[in-house]
Amino acid sequence: MKTTLALVAALLSLTLVTGPAGAQGKPELTVALSSFSTEVLDPVLGGHIVKYYLSLMFDYLVGVTPDGQPSKDGGLATRWEPSQDHRRWTFHLRRGVKFHTGEEVTAEDVKFSLQRAIGKRSTTGYAGPLRTLIQDIETPAPDRVVIVTKEPTLIIPTYLSRSLSTEGMILPKKYLEANGDDVFARKPVGSGPYRFVEQVTGSHIKLTAVDSHWRIGAPKYKTVTFKLVPEETTRVALLRRGEVDIADVSRDRVAELEREGFPIHMRREEAVLTMWWILPRDNQPTKDKRVREALNLAVDRSELAQSIFAGKAEPAFVPMGLSWSYRDLGFKVTPEMHYPYDPARAKALLAEAGYGGGFSMDVYAYQLPGLPEGRAFAEAMAGYWQKIGVKIKLIPVDYPAFRKNWFDRATPGAVGYYNIANRDWIGTYALIEKMAYSKSKASDVVNDPEIDGMLEQVPRQTDKEKIGVLMRNVYTRLRSEHYGVPVVYLHSPYAASKKLGKWTIGTVMYDFFIDELASSK
Question: Does position 2 have pLDDT exceeding 70, yes or no?
Answer without folding.
Answer: no
